[in-house]
Specification:
Radius of gyration: 16 Å
Distance between the termini: 46 Å
Largest sheet: 9 strands, parallel
Shape: globular
Order of helices and strands: EEEEEEEEEEEEEEEEEEEEEEEEEEE
Number of strands: 27
Number of domains: 2
Helix content: under 10%
Structural class: mainly beta
Number of helices: 0
């Protein structure tokens, strides 16, 4: 049975997610307002393969390392029609251990074959927080809506993995400091802008690709107002 949530939910405890599942192939549809304030307390959290998440409501998290929507598992499908805002930053209990930190991402999929789509709006503020992120091979992250980033040293859209794709076909406003609007890292990856990118933060990049054979493509508009910022890398 799919999880259809029409009830507003609010949590304040550590790692206390508003909606969660660990069932293979689960479908979650949220139509309500979800708010969390604890560390690592995600709005919607899934830990299983082939999970589908559709958000039509409002999600807001304020704790360190608390994502708006997160799915860990292969072949995740996440589509946001509503609004997602994360105001917390990095939670790093062991700064000497690489990879131990957790970021307050807007929407995050971890696993091969991910599909992340934004049709609504996503806003992030905390240091290191990104709006849309996919981590794994053969994945796709696409924005058709509005992304607003005021964090530091992060990305509005990021696809990390071989043959991954990061595509903007909507509007991105990149404030903050040293942020990248659309970013891909992986062999044979594709990073593309088909929409509008407005950069008003310093040290920013519009579209950037890293590693062998990455394709960096601009078919839209990149408007730069921030100091030491540039369009393509």
């Amino acid at each position: 049975m799919p999880i259809n949530n029409f009830t507003d939910k609010s949590t304040s405890g550590f790692d206390e997610d508003a909606l969660t599942t660990s069932t293979l192939g689960e479908r979650i549809r949220n139509f309500a307002r979800l708010t969390t304030s604890g560390e690592l307390a995600d709005g919607i959290s899934a830990n299983a393969d082939a999970v589908s998440i559709l958000n039509f409501g409002e999600i807001e998290t304020t704790g360190q390392g608390a994502a708006g929507v997160i799915a860990r598992g292969d072949n995740a499908r996440i589509v946001n029609f509503g609004s997602v805002a994360t105001l917390g930053g990095i939670r790093d209990p062991n700064p000497d251990v690489d990879g131990d930190e957790a970021f307050a991402e807007g929407i995050l999929a971890e696993g091969n074959g991910f599909r992340v789509v934004n049709i609504g709006s996503v806003h992030v503020e905390g240091d290191g927080s990104s709006c849309l992120v996919g981590v794994g091979n053969d994945g796709l992250v696409t924005n058709f809506g509005v992304l607003d980033i005021d964090s530091v040293d992060s990305s509005a859209i990021a696809a990390l993995g071989d043959r991954s794709q990061a595509v903007n076909a909507g509007l991105i406003r990149a404030g903050g400091d040293k942020n990248t609007s659309v970013f891909a890292l992986g062999e044979g990856a594709v990073v593309m802008n088909r929409g509008l990118i407005l950069i008003d933060g310093p040290g920013a990049t519009g579209v950037e690709g890293v590693i062998v054979n990455t394709h960096v493509i601009n078919k839209g508009t990149i408007r730069i107002e921030g100091e030491r910022s540039f369009g393509l890398a």
